UniProtKB/TrEMBL annotation:
Protein name, UniProt field: Glucose-methanol-choline oxidoreductase N-terminal domain-containing protein
Gene3D superfamilies: FAD/NAD(P)-binding domain, Glucose Oxidase, domain 3
Family: Belongs to the GMC oxidoreductase family.
Coiled-coil intervals, chain numbering: none
Keywords: FAD, Flavoprotein
Organism: Aspergillus niger
């Protein structure tokens, strides 16, 4: 893929025709794009949400990545000659498929979307994973983001580390994250109570149509 196309504007990008179009970048989509681009005879396009953002501090500073969420998007049309590869995540990939008429025929008909490809399973079996945050206080002298923000000299030091070496406290959006299974920590009775407490509000509020709820929980 020519280097001039790597950071093309939306106007230039959508005037081209591509052999492969990858919707969604990230660690999955960009790897696919890189490997397809190794073949000089194919043209590969990648669409990611939002602008390029190379001069946007919210983009260049990983610690501010949350400010990039939920930005408004524009609508464009692109031409693909061979294949469209969806890599838009848990929610957007099935959504785009269903809006394109690919999915459970009965579900699409219910929503008024013409079925182009019957593919049961699209958009089903979605399971929510509850998340809990732990709040704690650190003893004086322990380095943390909060301590850095209160100390002007430390703040300048870590901003310089980020800009010059892409390191330091601001090189990541969070300080610590872990995944701990819930079920080994509680009794079977408590586990069932938790599941009911999580699912019931969503079943009550998500939709008044029991058929639609059934589709999404298959």
């Amino acid at each position: 893929m020519p280097s001039a196309d790597l950071t093309s504007s939306p106007e230039d990008f959508f005037t081209q025709t591509y052999d492969y179009l990858i919707i969604g970048g990230g660690t999955a989509g960009l790897v696919v794009a890189s490997r397809l681009s190794a073949n000089p005879d194919v043209r590969v396009g990648v669409i990611e949400a939002g602008d390029a953002g190379f001069d946007d501090p919210n983009f260049t500073n990983p610690g501010k990545i949350s400010a990039m969420l939920h930005n408004p998007n524009n609508h464009y049309q692109v031409t693909v000659t061979r294949e469209v590869i969806l890599s838009a995540g848990t929610f957007e990939s099935p959504k785009l498929l269903e809006l394109s008429g690919i999915g459970e025929p009965e579900h699409l008909a219910y929503l008024g979307v013409p079925c182009r490809v019957p593919l049961p399973g699209v958009g089903t079996n979605l399971q929510e994973h509850p998340v809990s945050a732990v709040v704690y206080e650190l003893a004086d002298g322990v380095l943390s983001i909060e301590a850095i923000l209160r100390d002007e000299s430390l703040l300048k030091q870590h901003l310089q580390l980020l800009q010059e070496q892409h390191s330091g406290a601001f090189s990541g959006p969070v300080s610590l994250m872990g995944f701990i299974p819930y079920w080994p920590q509680v009794s079977a009775e408590r586990l069932n109570e938790t599941i009911v407490s999580v699912l019931q509000p969503h079943s009550d509020n998500a939709t008044d149509d029991p058929d639609l709820v059934t589709f999404q929980h298959r």
